[in-house]
Amino acid sequence: MNKEFIEALEELEAEKHVSKEVILDAVEQALVSAYKKNYGNYQNCSVAIDRETGEVRVLMSKDVVADEDLIDDMLEVSLTEAQQIDPRYEIGDVIRFAVIPKDFGRIAAQTAKQVVVQKIREAERGMVYDEFITRKEEIVNGTVSRKSGATLFVSLGSAEGILSANEQVPGENFEVREHLKVYIMDVKNTAKGPQVFLSRSHPGLVKGLFEQEVPEIQDGTVEIRSIAREAGSRTKMAVSSNDENVDPVGACVGTRGSRVQTVVDELSGEKIDIIFWSDDPAELIANVLSPADVEMVIIENEEEKNATAVVPDFQLSLAIGKQGQNVRLAAKVSGWKIDIKSHSQYEQLRAEGAYDDARDYDEEEDYAVLENSGETAEMPEEDVLIAEDPDGDEKETSEEAPSEEAAGEQEEE
Protein backbone atom coordinates (compact mmCIF):
# COMPACT_ATOMS: atom_id res chain seq x y z
CA MET A 1 0.00 0.00 0.00
CA ASN A 2 1.11 3.53 -0.65
CA LYS A 3 -0.04 7.10 -0.76
CA GLU A 4 -2.23 6.41 -3.82
CA PHE A 5 -4.23 4.01 -1.64
CA ILE A 6 -4.85 6.76 0.92
CA GLU A 7 -5.91 9.16 -1.83
CA ALA A 8 -8.33 6.57 -3.20
CA LEU A 9 -9.87 6.17 0.25
CA GLU A 10 -10.31 9.93 0.51
CA GLU A 11 -12.18 9.94 -2.81
CA LEU A 12 -14.42 7.12 -1.59
CA GLU A 13 -15.09 9.06 1.58
CA ALA A 14 -16.29 12.04 -0.44
CA GLU A 15 -18.31 10.01 -2.97
CA LYS A 16 -19.76 7.16 -0.90
CA HIS A 17 -19.68 8.86 2.51
CA VAL A 18 -17.59 6.00 3.94
CA SER A 19 -15.15 7.20 6.61
CA LYS A 20 -11.50 6.68 5.62
CA GLU A 21 -10.64 5.98 9.24
CA VAL A 22 -13.28 3.24 9.46
CA ILE A 23 -11.86 1.51 6.39
CA LEU A 24 -8.25 1.73 7.62
CA ASP A 25 -9.19 0.31 11.02
CA ALA A 26 -10.97 -2.56 9.30
CA VAL A 27 -8.01 -3.20 7.01
CA GLU A 28 -5.68 -3.34 9.99
CA GLN A 29 -7.86 -5.87 11.77
CA ALA A 30 -8.23 -7.98 8.62
CA LEU A 31 -4.46 -7.97 8.00
CA VAL A 32 -3.83 -9.17 11.55
CA SER A 33 -6.07 -12.16 10.89
CA ALA A 34 -4.39 -12.84 7.55
CA TYR A 35 -0.82 -12.54 8.87
CA LYS A 36 -1.50 -14.88 11.78
CA LYS A 37 -1.48 -17.66 9.22
CA ASN A 38 2.26 -17.10 9.03
CA TYR A 39 2.77 -17.35 12.77
CA GLY A 40 0.03 -19.67 13.97
CA ASN A 41 -2.54 -18.37 16.46
CA TYR A 42 -0.22 -16.11 18.41
CA GLN A 43 -2.06 -13.04 19.72
CA ASN A 44 1.01 -10.77 19.86
CA CYS A 45 0.72 -9.59 16.25
CA SER A 46 -0.56 -6.14 15.28
CA VAL A 47 -0.72 -4.04 12.12
CA ALA A 48 -0.27 -0.29 11.78
CA ILE A 49 -1.03 1.71 8.63
CA ASP A 50 0.42 5.17 8.31
CA ARG A 51 -2.50 7.57 7.68
CA GLU A 52 -0.38 9.86 5.52
CA THR A 53 1.86 7.59 3.44
CA GLY A 54 -0.13 4.36 3.46
CA GLU A 55 2.89 2.39 4.71
CA VAL A 56 1.94 -0.87 6.42
CA ARG A 57 3.97 -2.27 9.30
CA VAL A 58 3.45 -5.65 10.96
CA LEU A 59 4.56 -5.63 14.59
CA MET A 60 5.10 -8.54 16.99
CA SER A 61 5.25 -7.87 20.72
CA LYS A 62 7.66 -9.95 22.85
CA ASP A 63 8.22 -9.96 26.60
CA VAL A 64 11.77 -9.58 27.92
CA VAL A 65 12.69 -12.56 30.15
CA ALA A 66 15.85 -13.87 31.77
CA ASP A 67 18.04 -15.90 29.45
CA GLU A 68 17.44 -19.13 31.36
CA ASP A 69 13.63 -18.55 31.36
CA LEU A 70 13.31 -18.24 27.59
CA ILE A 71 10.76 -20.84 26.38
CA ASP A 72 9.00 -19.56 23.23
CA ASP A 73 10.94 -17.17 21.02
CA MET A 74 7.69 -16.20 19.26
CA LEU A 75 6.45 -14.62 22.48
CA GLU A 76 9.62 -13.87 24.42
CA VAL A 77 13.07 -12.38 23.94
CA SER A 78 16.06 -12.96 26.21
CA LEU A 79 17.44 -10.12 28.30
CA THR A 80 20.82 -10.42 26.54
CA GLU A 81 19.24 -10.01 23.09
CA ALA A 82 17.05 -7.18 24.25
CA GLN A 83 19.97 -5.24 25.73
CA GLN A 84 21.81 -5.61 22.43
CA ILE A 85 19.01 -3.56 20.92
CA ASP A 86 18.91 -1.08 23.79
CA PRO A 87 20.86 -1.44 27.06
CA ARG A 88 18.00 0.14 28.99
CA TYR A 89 15.70 -2.88 28.56
CA GLU A 90 14.96 -4.86 31.72
CA ILE A 91 13.10 -8.06 32.53
CA GLY A 92 9.34 -7.53 32.14
CA ASP A 93 9.59 -4.94 29.39
CA VAL A 94 7.83 -5.43 26.04
CA ILE A 95 9.59 -5.00 22.72
CA ARG A 96 7.74 -4.56 19.45
CA PHE A 97 9.54 -6.01 16.45
CA ALA A 98 8.73 -5.08 12.85
CA VAL A 99 8.42 -8.20 10.70
CA ILE A 100 7.73 -8.92 7.04
CA PRO A 101 5.54 -12.01 6.62
CA LYS A 102 5.81 -14.03 3.46
CA ASP A 103 3.64 -12.87 0.53
CA PHE A 104 3.29 -9.57 2.36
CA GLY A 105 2.27 -7.45 -0.64
CA ARG A 106 -0.23 -9.94 -2.12
CA ILE A 107 -1.98 -10.58 1.20
CA ALA A 108 -2.20 -6.88 1.98
CA ALA A 109 -3.62 -5.99 -1.42
CA GLN A 110 -6.24 -8.76 -1.43
CA THR A 111 -7.31 -8.06 2.14
CA ALA A 112 -7.57 -4.32 1.54
CA LYS A 113 -9.72 -4.85 -1.55
CA GLN A 114 -12.12 -7.18 0.25
CA VAL A 115 -12.46 -4.86 3.23
CA VAL A 116 -13.03 -1.76 1.11
CA VAL A 117 -15.71 -3.46 -1.00
CA GLN A 118 -17.45 -4.76 2.13
CA LYS A 119 -17.39 -1.40 3.88
CA ILE A 120 -18.75 0.36 0.80
CA ARG A 121 -21.59 -2.14 0.58
CA GLU A 122 -22.39 -1.74 4.27
CA ALA A 123 -22.30 2.04 3.98
CA GLU A 124 -24.64 2.04 0.98
CA ARG A 125 -27.06 -0.25 2.81
CA GLY A 126 -26.92 2.01 5.82
CA MET A 127 -27.66 5.08 3.71
CA VAL A 128 -30.63 3.36 2.05
CA TYR A 129 -32.04 2.34 5.43
CA ASP A 130 -31.53 5.81 6.89
CA GLU A 131 -33.23 7.38 3.87
CA PHE A 132 -36.35 5.21 3.87
CA ILE A 133 -36.84 4.80 7.61
CA THR A 134 -37.43 8.57 7.73
CA ARG A 135 -39.95 8.24 4.87
CA LYS A 136 -42.00 5.56 6.56
CA GLU A 137 -45.77 6.18 6.16
CA GLU A 138 -45.13 8.38 3.13
CA ILE A 139 -46.20 7.97 -0.50
CA VAL A 140 -43.46 7.53 -3.11
CA ASN A 141 -43.38 7.05 -6.86
CA GLY A 142 -42.00 3.79 -8.15
CA THR A 143 -41.63 1.61 -11.21
CA VAL A 144 -42.38 -2.11 -11.35
CA SER A 145 -38.96 -3.67 -11.93
CA ARG A 146 -39.89 -7.37 -11.83
CA LYS A 147 -42.49 -9.89 -10.76
CA SER A 148 -42.20 -13.04 -8.68
CA GLY A 149 -45.53 -14.82 -8.69
CA ALA A 150 -48.08 -12.38 -7.30
CA THR A 151 -45.39 -10.27 -5.59
CA LEU A 152 -44.22 -7.08 -7.29
CA PHE A 153 -40.76 -5.59 -6.82
CA VAL A 154 -40.86 -1.83 -7.22
CA SER A 155 -37.82 0.30 -8.01
CA LEU A 156 -37.70 3.35 -5.74
CA GLY A 157 -34.43 4.77 -7.01
CA SER A 158 -31.77 3.79 -4.49
CA ALA A 159 -33.77 0.80 -3.21
CA GLU A 160 -36.18 -1.86 -4.35
CA GLY A 161 -39.48 -2.19 -2.48
CA ILE A 162 -41.66 -5.26 -2.01
CA LEU A 163 -45.37 -5.08 -2.84
CA SER A 164 -46.84 -8.39 -1.66
CA ALA A 165 -50.10 -9.84 -2.95
CA ASN A 166 -51.82 -9.06 0.37
CA GLU A 167 -51.02 -5.35 -0.01
CA GLN A 168 -52.30 -5.07 -3.57
CA VAL A 169 -55.80 -3.92 -4.51
CA PRO A 170 -58.08 -6.56 -6.03
CA GLY A 171 -58.53 -5.85 -9.72
CA GLU A 172 -55.35 -3.80 -10.14
CA ASN A 173 -52.73 -5.29 -12.45
CA PHE A 174 -49.38 -3.59 -12.99
CA GLU A 175 -46.86 -4.68 -15.60
CA VAL A 176 -43.06 -4.40 -15.58
CA ARG A 177 -41.83 -0.81 -16.20
CA GLU A 178 -45.26 0.57 -15.26
CA HIS A 179 -45.28 3.57 -12.90
CA LEU A 180 -47.34 3.65 -9.71
CA LYS A 181 -47.66 5.35 -6.34
CA VAL A 182 -47.12 3.24 -3.25
CA TYR A 183 -47.32 3.69 0.52
CA ILE A 184 -44.21 2.85 2.57
CA MET A 185 -45.67 0.58 5.21
CA ASP A 186 -42.46 -0.58 6.95
CA VAL A 187 -38.67 -0.62 6.62
CA LYS A 188 -36.51 -3.37 8.12
CA ASN A 189 -32.75 -3.82 8.25
CA THR A 190 -31.96 -7.47 7.49
CA ALA A 191 -28.83 -9.52 6.82
CA LYS A 192 -29.54 -9.10 3.11
CA GLY A 193 -29.76 -5.36 3.48
CA PRO A 194 -32.67 -2.97 4.07
CA GLN A 195 -36.09 -4.16 2.90
CA VAL A 196 -38.85 -1.66 2.10
CA PHE A 197 -42.39 -3.04 2.41
CA LEU A 198 -44.98 -1.27 0.29
CA SER A 199 -48.77 -1.18 0.11
CA ARG A 200 -51.51 -0.10 -2.27
CA SER A 201 -54.37 -1.19 0.01
CA HIS A 202 -53.42 0.67 3.20
CA PRO A 203 -55.71 3.58 4.25
CA GLY A 204 -52.57 5.67 4.54
CA LEU A 205 -52.33 5.71 0.74
CA VAL A 206 -55.66 7.55 0.46
CA LYS A 207 -54.70 9.92 3.27
CA GLY A 208 -51.35 10.68 1.65
CA LEU A 209 -52.92 11.31 -1.76
CA PHE A 210 -55.27 13.88 -0.26
CA GLU A 211 -52.36 15.49 1.57
CA GLN A 212 -50.63 15.90 -1.78
CA GLU A 213 -53.70 17.28 -3.54
CA VAL A 214 -55.21 19.56 -0.87
CA PRO A 215 -53.11 22.59 0.21
CA GLU A 216 -55.41 23.16 3.18
CA ILE A 217 -54.40 19.76 4.57
CA GLN A 218 -50.72 20.51 4.00
CA ASP A 219 -50.86 23.78 5.93
CA GLY A 220 -52.97 22.30 8.75
CA THR A 221 -56.17 24.24 8.07
CA VAL A 222 -58.05 21.04 7.27
CA GLU A 223 -57.39 17.89 9.29
CA ILE A 224 -58.14 14.27 8.40
CA ARG A 225 -59.55 12.97 11.67
CA SER A 226 -60.29 9.36 10.73
CA ILE A 227 -60.26 7.12 7.69
CA ALA A 228 -61.56 3.63 6.94
CA ARG A 229 -61.03 1.74 3.71
CA GLU A 230 -62.02 -1.41 1.89
CA ALA A 231 -59.42 -1.27 -0.86
CA GLY A 232 -60.77 -1.31 -4.39
CA SER A 233 -64.34 -0.64 -3.30
CA ARG A 234 -64.96 2.31 -0.94
CA THR A 235 -63.28 4.65 1.52
CA LYS A 236 -64.88 6.84 4.19
CA MET A 237 -62.86 9.80 5.42
CA ALA A 238 -63.90 12.21 8.17
CA VAL A 239 -62.43 15.71 8.05
CA SER A 240 -62.61 18.85 10.17
CA SER A 241 -61.48 22.44 9.79
CA ASN A 242 -59.40 24.58 12.15
CA ASP A 243 -60.74 27.70 10.42
CA GLU A 244 -64.47 28.41 10.63
CA ASN A 245 -64.29 30.11 7.23
CA VAL A 246 -62.97 26.98 5.48
CA ASP A 247 -65.31 24.16 4.50
CA PRO A 248 -63.26 20.95 5.04
CA VAL A 249 -65.38 18.80 2.73
CA GLY A 250 -65.39 21.40 -0.02
CA ALA A 251 -61.61 21.80 0.26
CA CYS A 252 -61.12 18.06 -0.24
CA VAL A 253 -63.62 17.87 -3.09
CA GLY A 254 -62.15 20.83 -4.96
CA THR A 255 -63.65 22.90 -7.75
CA ARG A 256 -66.09 20.69 -9.65
CA GLY A 257 -64.64 17.71 -7.83
CA SER A 258 -61.18 18.14 -9.37
CA ARG A 259 -59.18 17.25 -6.24
CA VAL A 260 -61.12 14.17 -5.21
CA GLN A 261 -61.26 13.03 -8.85
CA THR A 262 -57.47 13.01 -9.02
CA VAL A 263 -57.36 10.72 -6.01
CA VAL A 264 -60.12 8.50 -7.41
CA ASP A 265 -58.24 8.14 -10.70
CA GLU A 266 -55.07 7.08 -8.88
CA LEU A 267 -57.12 4.47 -6.98
CA SER A 268 -58.63 3.04 -10.19
CA GLY A 269 -62.12 4.40 -9.56
CA GLU A 270 -62.49 3.56 -5.86
CA LYS A 271 -65.46 5.38 -4.32
CA ILE A 272 -64.66 7.96 -1.65
CA ASP A 273 -67.08 9.40 0.94
CA ILE A 274 -65.86 12.63 2.53
CA ILE A 275 -67.66 13.35 5.80
CA PHE A 276 -67.80 16.16 8.37
CA TRP A 277 -66.17 15.12 11.63
CA SER A 278 -67.94 15.98 14.88
CA ASP A 279 -66.89 15.61 18.49
CA ASP A 280 -70.54 14.92 19.28
CA PRO A 281 -70.94 11.11 18.96
CA ALA A 282 -74.53 11.30 17.77
CA GLU A 283 -73.81 13.85 15.07
CA LEU A 284 -70.71 11.92 14.00
CA ILE A 285 -72.65 8.66 13.67
CA ALA A 286 -75.36 10.40 11.67
CA ASN A 287 -72.71 11.83 9.34
CA VAL A 288 -70.72 8.62 8.78
CA LEU A 289 -73.84 6.67 7.78
CA SER A 290 -74.38 8.87 4.72
CA PRO A 291 -75.63 8.63 2.05
CA ALA A 292 -78.50 7.35 4.23
CA ASP A 293 -80.59 9.91 6.14
CA VAL A 294 -80.56 9.28 9.90
CA GLU A 295 -83.70 10.13 11.86
CA MET A 296 -82.13 9.75 15.29
CA VAL A 297 -79.14 8.28 17.12
CA ILE A 298 -79.51 6.51 20.46
CA ILE A 299 -76.40 6.31 22.62
CA GLU A 300 -76.70 2.91 24.31
CA ASN A 301 -73.41 2.86 26.23
CA GLU A 302 -70.94 5.72 25.95
CA GLU A 303 -68.08 3.87 27.67
CA GLU A 304 -68.33 0.82 25.43
CA LYS A 305 -69.27 3.03 22.47
CA ASN A 306 -72.49 1.25 21.54
CA ALA A 307 -75.15 3.18 19.63
CA THR A 308 -78.31 2.61 17.61
CA ALA A 309 -79.16 4.64 14.51
CA VAL A 310 -82.75 4.88 13.29
CA VAL A 311 -83.34 5.41 9.57
CA PRO A 312 -86.49 5.61 7.42
CA ASP A 313 -87.84 2.20 6.42
CA PHE A 314 -87.09 2.69 2.74
CA GLN A 315 -83.44 3.60 3.52
CA LEU A 316 -82.56 0.61 5.69
CA SER A 317 -80.75 -1.19 2.88
CA LEU A 318 -78.91 2.00 1.93
CA ALA A 319 -77.75 2.55 5.52
CA ILE A 320 -76.51 -1.02 5.81
CA GLY A 321 -74.93 -1.02 2.37
CA LYS A 322 -74.15 -3.88 0.06
CA GLN A 323 -73.04 -6.83 2.19
CA GLY A 324 -72.99 -4.48 5.19
CA GLN A 325 -70.21 -2.33 3.77
CA ASN A 326 -71.65 1.10 4.62
CA VAL A 327 -72.29 0.41 8.30
CA ARG A 328 -69.02 -1.51 8.59
CA LEU A 329 -66.98 1.44 7.30
CA ALA A 330 -69.10 3.84 9.38
CA ALA A 331 -68.23 1.86 12.51
CA LYS A 332 -64.52 1.89 11.68
CA VAL A 333 -64.30 5.58 10.88
CA SER A 334 -66.36 6.67 13.90
CA GLY A 335 -64.98 4.14 16.38
CA TRP A 336 -68.52 3.23 17.52
CA LYS A 337 -70.40 -0.07 17.33
CA ILE A 338 -73.52 0.84 15.38
CA ASP A 339 -76.82 -1.05 15.25
CA ILE A 340 -79.08 0.04 12.39
CA LYS A 341 -82.86 -0.05 12.86
CA SER A 342 -85.66 1.07 10.59
CA HIS A 343 -88.26 3.53 11.85
CA SER A 344 -90.89 0.78 12.15
CA GLN A 345 -88.49 -1.48 14.05
CA TYR A 346 -87.73 1.34 16.46
CA GLU A 347 -91.45 2.11 16.98
CA GLN A 348 -92.15 -1.55 17.68
CA LEU A 349 -89.33 -1.76 20.25
CA ARG A 350 -90.50 1.48 21.80
CA ALA A 351 -94.04 0.12 22.08
CA GLU A 352 -92.60 -2.92 23.84
CA GLY A 353 -90.96 -0.64 26.39
CA ALA A 354 -87.39 -0.80 25.14
CA TYR A 355 -87.24 3.00 24.83
CA ASP A 356 -89.60 4.19 27.57
CA ASP A 357 -87.62 7.29 28.42
CA ALA A 358 -86.81 8.24 24.85
CA ARG A 359 -87.97 11.71 23.97
CA ASP A 360 -89.71 12.45 20.69
CA TYR A 361 -87.44 13.22 17.76
CA ASP A 362 -87.39 16.85 16.71
CA GLU A 363 -87.69 16.84 12.93
CA GLU A 364 -86.06 20.25 12.71
CA GLU A 365 -82.79 18.81 14.00
CA ASP A 366 -80.40 16.70 11.97
CA TYR A 367 -80.11 14.12 14.72
CA ALA A 368 -81.17 13.41 18.29
CA VAL A 369 -79.44 11.78 21.25
CA LEU A 370 -81.88 9.52 23.07
CA GLU A 371 -80.86 8.20 26.46
CA ASN A 372 -82.08 4.61 26.85
CA SER A 373 -82.81 3.61 30.44
CA GLY A 374 -84.92 0.58 29.58
CA GLU A 375 -83.96 -2.86 28.35
CA THR A 376 -82.84 -3.17 24.75
CA ALA A 377 -83.46 -5.89 22.27
CA GLU A 378 -80.82 -8.60 22.11
CA MET A 379 -78.10 -7.65 19.62
CA PRO A 380 -75.36 -9.70 17.90
CA GLU A 381 -71.95 -9.86 19.60
CA GLU A 382 -69.90 -8.84 16.55
CA ASP A 383 -67.93 -5.62 16.65
CA VAL A 384 -70.09 -4.18 13.88
CA LEU A 385 -73.80 -4.68 14.38
CA ILE A 386 -75.76 -5.05 11.15
CA ALA A 387 -79.53 -5.01 11.18
CA GLU A 388 -81.45 -7.41 8.99
CA ASP A 389 -83.56 -5.94 6.21
CA PRO A 390 -87.18 -7.03 6.79
CA ASP A 391 -87.49 -7.76 3.08
CA GLY A 392 -84.22 -9.68 3.01
CA ASP A 393 -82.84 -7.28 0.39
CA GLU A 394 -79.46 -5.72 1.14
CA LYS A 395 -79.14 -4.02 -2.22
CA GLU A 396 -78.90 -0.25 -2.03
CA THR A 397 -82.16 1.51 -2.76
CA SER A 398 -82.52 3.81 -5.72
CA GLU A 399 -84.09 6.73 -3.88
CA GLU A 400 -82.83 10.22 -4.56
CA ALA A 401 -79.30 10.65 -3.25
CA PRO A 402 -78.80 13.33 -0.58
CA SER A 403 -77.24 16.60 -1.58
CA GLU A 404 -73.55 17.27 -1.04
CA GLU A 405 -74.39 19.69 1.76
CA ALA A 406 -76.54 17.17 3.59
CA ALA A 407 -74.40 14.10 3.05
CA GLY A 408 -71.07 15.79 3.34
CA GLU A 409 -69.46 13.44 0.86
CA GLN A 410 -68.14 13.04 -2.66
CA GLU A 411 -68.96 9.71 -4.22
CA GLU A 412 -67.52 8.65 -7.57
CA GLU A 413 -69.25 5.83 -9.36
How is this fold's topology laid out?
Layout: H1 3-16, H2 20-39, E1 45-49, E2 56-65, E3 76-78, H3 79-85, E4 94-99, H4 104-133, E5 139-148, E6 151-155, E7 160-163, E8 179-190, E9 193-199, H5 203-213, H6 215-218, E10 222-230, E11 234-241, H7 248-253, H8 258-266, E12 271-276, H9 281-288, E13 296-301, E14 306-311, H10 316-320, H11 325-334, E15 337-342, H12 343-351, H13 404-407
Parallel strand pairs: 2-3, 7-9, 11-12, 14-15
Antiparallel strand pairs: 1-2, 2-4, 5-6, 5-8, 6-7, 8-9, 10-11, 13-14
Q: How would you explain this protein's 3D organization?
A:
This protein is α/β, with parallel strands linked by helices and 413 residues long. The chain folds into four domains: 130 residues, NusA, N-terminal domain (N Utilization Substance Protein A, Chain:P, domain 4); 66 residues, Beta Barrel (OB fold (Dihydrolipoamide Acetyltransferase, E2P)), CATH 2.40.50; 76 residues, K homology (KH) domain (GMP Synthetase, Chain A, domain 3), CATH 3.30.300.20; 133 residues, 2-Layer Sandwich (GMP Synthetase, Chain A, domain 3), CATH 3.30.300. Helices cover 33% and strands 25% of the residues. The protein has 13 helices and 15 strands. The strands form four sheets. The protein has a five-stranded mixed barrel with strand order 5-6-7-9-8. Strands 1, 2, 3 and 4 form a four-stranded mixed sheet that branches. The protein has a three-stranded mixed sheet with strand order 10-11-12, with helices on both faces. The protein is elongated and about 115 Å long. The two termini are 70 Å apart.
